[in-house]
Amino acid sequence: MAQAYANGGAAPPVPRAGRYRWLIIALLFAATTVNYIDRTMLGLLAPVLGDELGWSENDYGNIVTAFQAAYALGFLLMGWLIDRFGPKIGYSIAITIWTIGHIAHGFAGSVASFMAARVILGVGEAGHFPSVVRASSEWFPQKERSYAIGWVNSATTIGVILTAPTIWLFMVWMGFDWRQTFIYSGAFGVVLLILWLWLYSNPRESGKVSEAELAWIEHDPPEQVERLGWSKIVTKREAWAFAIAKFLTDPVWFLMLFWLPKYFASTYDVDLKIVLLPMIIMYLLSDVGSIVGGWTSSKLIQNGHSVNFARKITMIGAGLCVLPLLFVTGLDNMWLAVVLIGVALAGHQAFSSTILSIPPDMFPKRAVGSVIGLGGFMGGIGGMIMAKSTGLVLDATGGNYTLIFAACTTVYFLAVLAVHLLSPKLAPVRVESAAAPA
């Protein structure tokens, strides 16, 4: 098949075959769930910790900002690490670091010590999405990849949903305090690390993939260059198209993740650790968005549309779904607010699944981790700005979210515009002297 491409001919059609690659997606789904349980637990416990430890909104904003700063910088390190050593070793290191950081919360007592624990957690968790996209690019062809990533991305909300039952399991059923809950729930990360080391490998080394499935996985045109170093990646407009989109849109998800429980507690006097139904509705809607967004993009490509059209039209549609946030703060009816926020979360996740599919469209597999790292770094910087500014705005306005939600509705369209201006066709990057990778 590679010879057919090399000679300028069309490769023969390859039928979709096999199912083993979906086991890898199931493993990544489980990993994402654990990742987000560990990330979200502080957000749900924040009202309890705030009362016990006397945190102000600005104190909590500083703790969240510490996570965002470490998460941003960690992306640069972890993206490189995963490209250098591959997802099996790179992700194992990431899981180990973030599990240590999660457990460290149980030993924290001051704002400074919580910030330190969040820094360790952030560095480790920064390795998650570079590993997910790199592994997906190894196991799925282009026309199926965004659908696969959509399923993995949907687990972010499963993790958020399961955080409250996890807290209930440890604090109510087992009778632990919040410190023990952080410590003993670290077992999830240990189990995940064992499963990852046991089950993950690339398709050719797994020994469990049929020839037909391997042909389907590898039927994309061969890459022009094996790998790009940082010195070349940072000069590519295509890398910055992805990075700017992440800078603009990632903060919306972080806002919802860290402040949504506090919003419902202050606006409707509802504790989402106890009243689970609102959170389940919102995040199940976001799951639908993640899967539908990934499916839509993949389906458009399979139906003959260009990758450029499929990705961008899906992102525009996703952005439209976020607009209901404009009407949330004026609502007295909590359940209507739940539905509108859920639709907005669905739009975000549809956008996220699609934008994560773009780096493998444009870059060789062994550069994908670094490109995702650059985007994650920029997303973390945006999230850090959002965390600090949200705390200040809420302190200044007496907890009014109107301005914050309004800002969230504009960023998706700005992101699509940035992607289009910097990469009008989403074409693979052109590299001079391709025979000598950086």
Quick structural overview:
The protein has 438 residues and is mainly α. It has helices at residues 2-6, 20-53, 57-104, 111-125, 128-139, 142-173, 178-184, 187-199, 203-206, 211-217, 230-233, 237-268, 277-302, 307-322, 334-356, 358-362, 365-397, 402-408, 411-422.
List the helices and strands and how they pair.
Blueprint: H1 2-6, H2 20-53, H3 57-104, H4 111-125, H5 128-139, H6 142-173, H7 178-184, H8 187-199, H9 203-206, H10 211-217, H11 230-233, H12 237-268, H13 277-302, H14 307-322, H15 334-356, H16 358-362, H17 365-397, H18 402-408, H19 411-422
Helix pairs in contact: 2-3, 2-5, 2-6, 2-8, 2-12, 3-4, 3-5, 3-8, 3-17, 5-6, 5-17, 6-13, 6-15, 12-15, 12-17, 12-19, 13-14, 13-15, 14-15, 14-19
Distance between the termini: 27 Å
Helix content: over 70%
The CATH superfamily name is MFS general substrate transporter like domains
Helix count, DSSP H or I runs of 4 or more residues: 19
What is the fold-level CATH name, i.e. the topology?
A: Growth Hormone, Chain: A
Walkthrough of the structure:
By secondary structure, this protein is mostly helical. It has one domain: MFS general substrate transporter like domains (Growth Hormone, Chain: A, Up-down Bundle), CATH 1.20.1250.20. It is 76% helix and 0% strand. It has 19 helices and no strands. The longest helix is centred in the first third of the chain and has 48 residues. It starts with a helix and ends in a 16-residue tail after the last helix. The N terminus and C terminus are likely disordered.
